[in-house]
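Posting this for the archive.
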Amino acid sequence: MFKCLWTLICLAVAAQAVLAATPDAPMPSLRPDQVAFLGLFKELAETNTTLSAGSCTLAAERMATHLKAAGFADADITLFSAPEHPKEGGLVAVLHGRSNTAKPILLLGHLDVVEAKREDWTRDPFTLIEENGRYYGRGTLDMKSTDAIWVDLLARFKQSGYRPRRSIRLALTCGEETLGAFNSLQWLVQNRPELVAAEFALNEGGGGLLDDHGKMLEQDLVVAEKTTRNYRLETVNPGGHSSIPIRDNAIYELADALIRVREYEFPMKVTPINQAYFAKTGAVRGDELGRAMVALAQNPDDAAALAKVSKDRVYNALLHTTCVATLLDGGHASNALPQRAGANVNCRIFPGETAEGTRAALEAAMGDPRVKVTLIPRNKPLASSAPLDPRIVRPAEKLVAKYFPGVPLVPVMATGSSDGPYLEAIGIPVYGVPGVWADSDFNGVHGLNEYISVRSLFVGRDLMTDLVKIYANSN
């Protein structure tokens, strides 16, 4: 009887391992703890946290309710907001560890999401809808899935009486997605830094990536990121009556300048981080592009390999600072020559480069002194790299190997930008952790019909819970 029972347990464990290693496999029936987690995730996903119409403060209050229900004392939960930004608040919570000397770890997440217009979406962006093995809704991948995982694991730790060696802090903040919006992590760092003090922080940006055939190529550990800055390009002209047009037209001048911005490519940079990334991920791909990635990692001067790799927009972004037009405005009347035209150019600046240097490169690329280029002020610090600490990397490698046999964990520079630099500026290294994954189309993040796969949500939850446990018990 015991032999049969042991065999059944082994088979169940083996089945779970196979399912974890197969990203598109159907999920088995949900466990009770997964059902409870799904309810938490649904509540968070359906709380509108856009800048225009939502409330991060409400989302934070709802997450605090879950933590209190799990046994967290009021003294261990801080709900905060600035008086002038009542809807852009957040939450800090702490699960106390056994050690009085070991520094805490910090779980970081932003509650706000990119705007989503119902008329543009196939489904209501603020109703969590399950279809064909996916959960659809704004923020499902970026990043309310991770927010929910952080809240859920702390609640389960508290309910079970589990106390790790290190204290675990959680900060759910607002303002990450919108330039110029109040940023509540920045507010915490400036006004209540003791609430987020930690040896290191775990953040968004990592996770897995599937290819076009559903094969997982990698699980990423983000150790660096680009810095985002925006520039206002503007042309001015006296204008006049549209019945007597002239060549000196503000809109045409701006359009010509934007075409030159489109055609300009910043110099390539191959760092040790992306060399290692191309070597590992290219070997897993095994196709023509993968072989070019490996060749480029071995020889950054290989022009043929560079040309091949650069055709992929993701890999190209790992090699250059990038700038792209994102907003346009111009003119003042339909029957008048334009007096003014402007565009926003969003740049993702490579580590080690500066905002002023990027502005100068844009001006040189356009070659037109009539186009005024203005750096839009932003107080966010420049991003810095986190150390490749074996205490961080090795546990993540082991868990990725356990959950996804044959898939490498790859330290990587994120092409996007997060709130991590606010913590880095006060000496807290930030890592984007492995776990949930995206399809090759990035699941509509920042676009239409955003989703996370059901398997990604639940397998990612298990991996990330295990990872936090290991880090929280480390020396």
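Confidence is low (pLDDT under 50) at residues 1-20. The chain has 14 helices and 19 strands.
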